[in-house]
Amino acid sequence: MNIGRLALVAAIVASSISFSQTDSVKFVPEVSMPDGIFLSYNDLRSNNPITKEQIVSKLDKQQLEFITKTMFEEKFTFKSHDSTITRDTKSTWGFVQNNTFYVMYKDDYYRIPVFGSISYLVANVTVVNAGFYDPRFGYGNTGTSREIREFLINYYDGKVTEFSMEYFEELLSRDRELLAEFNKLPKRKQKEQLYRFVRRFNEKHPVYFLSK
Length: 212
Description:
Number of strands: 15
Largest sheet: 5 strands, antiparallel
Number of domains: 2
Order of helices and strands: HEEHEEHEEEEEEEEEEHHHHE
Strand content: 25-35%
Helix content: 25-40%
Number of helices: 7
């Protein structure tokens, strides 16, 4: 390869490094996030929330639970540029309050204990139970119950997915070293140490918000 081509390759590499450092912002858990509402997953990726200052409300914005109380309402109103907009609270991706993230899942908000590239959460969700079949009377009425379920969130698509070991290993496979270590554990130990591996993965692969 001649000197001219070497110089060109060096310039491209230098440009790529510079771009990668400036086109995203690292999420640092120890640094407080401003309270706000993410209308969509893309707003989360860009760290572009609707702030408390934008929200139109009669509630006291100095309350620690202001955002939560706002999201308990059926709708909320906020100002954007020169417009006043009203949205259904259940149409949002989620919100952050007191440096804790909450995500919308099936018409309810759930707390994300540890937010990162892989988020793991446990939630008490409403489950629809199919009616039982009686040969004399046909199917009985369906009903609902509250059950504890586990979920995973892949930061890079924002989807809330009910936990399965197969899906967790798929997410963990982005780090071959951690996956190999995880797969060496007995099945019982894998479940016991799941939370620890989520934390370790997130420490090695921190979240980056896209620059606005």
